[in-house]
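Look at one such:
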Amino acid sequence: MADTVIPSGTTSPTSHLLASLDPLLRTWLPRQRWFAGKGRQITGFSCVAATELLPPDGRLGLYHLLLRVHQPAAPGAPPQPGDCYQLLIGVREALPPRLAPALIGHVEDGPLTGRTVYDALYDPRPAEVLLEALRGRARVGGLRFERDTGQDIREGLVARLMTAEQSNSSVVYGDTFILKVLRRVVPGVNPDLELPLALARAGCARVPAPTAWLHAEAAGEPEGPYVLAVLQPYVSGATDGWELALRELAKGEDFVAEARALGRATAEVHTALARALPTVTLGHAQLERLVDGMTERLDAAVQAVPALRPYAPGLRSAYEALAALAAEGRTWTAQRVHGDLHLGQCLRSPSGQWSLIDFEGEPARPLAERRMPQPPVRDIAGMLRSFDYAAHSATPAAADWAHACRAAYCSGYAEVAGRDPRTDPVLLRAYETDKAVYEVVYEARHRPDWLPVPLAAIRRLAASDPI
């Protein structure tokens, strides 16, 4: 199919537009779940790109913005250029009541004076513009809408925004496709597109194959373009693993069979990734760098969350034990992995089939780090931590439930991979400790009421009990 150009698409002059939006965005952005700079003052904005998708001279206007947000660096951190966010700004004379949750504000000066601006993903028509552009492989300013021409995208699919809390935004089109719109973006190859494409080529049915994707040219960026959105088939009627686990907990049912099936699904994905992409051997030098990174993150976490201080020596011993094995000549195989695996990243279809989604990795980590080969146990540690989270959401905390799920998951993994993660307890403990330390910092900053969940794991891990 030939490329299509949307005639109205033009790259807009940005200075007046940005100046008019500035006071509204300073208030609105910190309230968004996906905004990473909470708790730090916004000192300014700079526009990476602004593209007009619908001219604002009619009833509805639509701007696509890549906006760099400038904030003071966190205490002890080096100065940073500022995070870049993707915004889709809708423009109307007034918002209908159904779009009230999307309100950004009323513009008081500049080219949009007197208009109301809002998060356009809440509005079906702007969201459908994106699908039309993907279907037609449009070129609009620096935006490039691409697709797998072997998959059909029907016209007329009605859009709806998923309102569950996420670090990005997702739009469902007629229960046929789901578009993941990345919010905090960086230039370069994004694993959320790279890995599902590789798995599709490898014939792995555990991950929905990308149907289409959006990227933006990045002038002067040696890393390459920004990946902005990925369209994949929507698993209609599916339940995510977190919701399913909580449902079974509420009914007093165990989750052992599902945990074992999840272990098998994880191993199938790992096996396919190892076939599709290069693997490496981690020797002493590589393990030394890995352990140093874990130790640095622990030291920073202790400074940020004083509640960690009593456990620091025990936690550090997890990393020291791994370093000691490496010094003795022990090696491990590393490969591409999911990078942020937990129950919420797994979907069970009505037929009982488990799928893995969201291969972006931990968004707070640099892209280069998220794309590095890692021991598969990193994903396993993330899922084990997720079982703990589910158990501690129950009243009273269901420690036995979590223990049974953790054991079943590892057993299911071994059935496919041929090796049980528990037979490598030093590596497993180190990765689970690193994950729990990350969780402590996250919860302390964003959800203090949840801090007891990772702290319970910290106490266990500091006492050298990985399972």
In short: Residues 239-462 form a domain with the Aminoglycoside 3'-phosphotransferase; Chain: A, domain 2 fold (CATH 3.90.1200.10). Residues 1-12 have pLDDT under 50 and may be disordered. Residues 425-446 form the longest helix (22 residues).
